[in-house]
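Input record (one chain):
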Amino acid sequence: MYLCDTIKYIKMKNIKFLSLFALLSVGALFLTNCSGTDDDVPEPSPVVNFIGGAEYVDEDVSLAANSTFTMGITASHQSNIKSIKITRAISGNVAIELLDSSVNDKVITDFFFTITTQNSAGSEVYSFIVSDKDGNSTTKSLTVTNLGDPGKKLVEFLVDNDAETFKVWNFRGPNSGAYGISFGDNLNVSEGNDLKDIQDSTTLNEISSWPARWTSRNGSMFRKVTTSSWASITNDAELLAAWDASGTSETTVNIVNGDLYILDLGNGGAFALVEITDVVTTANDNKDYVQFRYKKQQ
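The corresponding structure, as predicted from the sequence alone:
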């Protein structure tokens, strides 16, 4: 190869190398730009949760017209929360603002709001909107199904600390093992089954291990309530709505402290709400018992 040809070859190789280097540099720049920057990461929104408990509504619920109830939220954020708004949309209509509260905290442990349902049946959607100064927000909502006319208020019966009338004992023991919700008194073995809305159902084979189980002897039916609370059921409309929402009717149920039941009373054609307040097992005397309180229709 002549000297001139050699020089030309070297020049061409350098041009190709430089071209490849330039192409790789542009590609690297393009990949860097496509990988994103901190500016592309979305700002986090506040974390919001409803406050639960017997005195608060924290999930979808059915309530009668003109029922007063309380909702509460907790909220947290990496920056300060600046506002909490509450809206209500009635039966699918445009939401109306009920409250616009200014705050200035990263953590809110208890923000409560009390309101009364409308005076007629329909749906009421309540929304809590929690926002920071940049407009990042989180919305938590629940639906209240307004049942309309509440009917009569339930009559509430509470445990009297000086009496034992609100207990059902082990039926194989010396104490009264049945109760008549319809007329409000304990019953023993010799009394008629037609009065026994509730009876302990311990068998002879279970004497050594009390099962804490109730049955009905007069046709009363039990439904375990899981979507309402003792406090939220106060009148006819709410009691019947909870009955309809509580699933299968049973004549025999296993009892656990804190359980809530609605009874369709076999003797009287009415309904009652029963809450288990204690389950006590005793040793070798068959004096085990279930303690309860109840509300019923007038």
